[in-house]
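Case study 2.
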Amino acid sequence: MVWGSRKSQRIAFQRGIEARMVAIDGTWSRRCQVADISTTGARLIVEEAVGGLRIKEFFLALSTMGRVWRRCELVRVNGDELGVKFLKASAPRESGERQQGNAHLHDDPA
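Prediction:
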């Protein structure tokens, strides 16, 4: 099923990729499958009911260790399918401490 015009090309997974939706405040989580994904969003298949949950914004954990994740905004619901767009992270605040902490990443080792 195609939902509207796409801004970027999607990669579809034949069997889906296991993932987990997690509330921004950590009060709930649900297992899901990533049916397709792009740089701007994804189509998820939920395995458990999401009715009554605040799912306007949530994290999508793409790894079991939680190291790969995206902050999502719900765009559409069609039965057990959710369309989400990925929210871009805010630019880090520029502070002297932050800049000094990252300075070593760009220096060549002596």
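The chain has one helix and six strands.
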